[in-house]
Design goal:
By secondary structure, this protein is of the alpha/beta class. Helix content is 30%, strand content 18%. It folds into 2 domains: 163 residues, Rossmann fold (3-Layer(aba) Sandwich); 79 residues, Alpha-Beta Plaits, CATH 3.30.70.20. The structure holds flavin mononucleotide (FMN) and iron/sulfur cluster (SF4) (2 copies).
């Protein structure tokens, strides 16, 4: 009786939730979904979960690709924990339909509101709301862990405006969005952005990051840069950076993220 949790994260919210689930569930392994770490290892777990942020109303592309490539068993209890600034929108339906196409299905879905890390949508954000969300997440995660431990079945809610949500999702085309990143003179070439990028999309060239146009738009590089040297067009100028306070940058180095 064990659990494997696959998580995708940019600013650490999903990792914090995955770590807390591991704390409350017995025999649990957490594995980061990233380009260098996407070969599926059969853990034999009877419970398999996915923890992810909602992007443009749906699943991050790398999460969809990961699930499309993994073996799926109809005997496994699959669960999903979405976290978001607004809502889970159509992400559970998307995940369920990938599992269905492979002979499985989602047994339970959970949503946890977290600080929104996308400044077009959420900034300026009431600071207190960020703090409240960070503070209430551990208790919410205990409730989720209890349901998972008991293998509770939770039906996916219907989405009234699915076509509109789907249209927003279809407009999300992240690969070349990195063309809008640039660095300020405060960049010291430390390479941290390269190490944490889940898409292996950054090289360091002449002491500066160079983006290679297979970006997932997770915003990890821009929010975690210790020098706050990365900008996105002029949209991020003078905007506060965010990452989860209980996650250390080293936990996001892609090659060291199984535990
Ligand atoms: C590209 C992008 C798109 C996003 N789109 C949505 C969205 O459609 N709805 C929503 O509620 N939150 C959206 N968010 C906010 C994230 O889902 C939220 O901040 C999440 O907790 C981040 O998790 P992480 O720290 O694990 O990366 C978006 C964030 C990014 C980076
Ligand atoms: S993390 Fe920041 S300072 Fe370090 S190389 Fe990347 S952009 Fe430059
Ligand atoms: S380049 Fe930046 S935004 Fe794009 S996937 Fe890598 S860390 Fe995320």
């Amino acid at each position: 009786m064990s659990t494997t949790i696959y998580y995708f994260t940019g600013t650490g919210n999903s990792l914090k939730i995955a770590k807390d689930l591991k704390k409350y569930l017995e025999y649990t392994k957490i594995v980061r979904i990233c380009k260098d770490n996407n070969s599926f290892e059969d853990t034999g777990s009877d419970k398999i979960g996915f923890v992810f942020p909602v992007y443009f109303r749906g699943l991050p592309h790398m999460v969809s690709q990961f699930v499309e490539n993994m073996p799926v068993y109809n005997s496994v209890y699959y669960f999903a924990v979405a976290n978001y600034g607004g809502s889970a929108a159509i992400s559970f339906q998307q995940l369920n339909s990938i599992l269905n196409s492979k002979g499985g299905s989602l047994s339970a879905t959970f949503g946890i509101p977290m600080p929104g890390n996308m400044w077009f949508m959420y900034y300026p954000h009431p600071k207190q709301d960020f703090i409240d969300r960070i503070n209430s997440q551990p208790q919410e995660t205990i409730t989720v862990a209890t349901a998972i431990h008991n293998k509770i079945n939770i039906k996916i809610d219907n989405i009234a405006n699915y076509p509109a949500e789907e249209a927003i999702y279809q407009s999300f085309s992240p690969n070349n969005m990195d063309a809008n990143f640039w660095t300020k003179s405060t960049c010291n070439g430390c390479g941290i952005c390269m190490k944490i990028c889940p898409a292996n999309n950054i090289s360091i060239l002449h002491d500066r990051p160079y983006w290679q146009h297979h970006c997932e738009y997770c915003l990890s590089c821009i929010h975690w840069c210790p020098k706050e040297a990365i900008e996105y067009n002029q949209d991020s100028t003078n905007k506060e950076r965010y990452h989860h306070p209980d996650v250390k940058i080293q936990e996001l180095f892609c090659k060291m993220t199984n535990s």
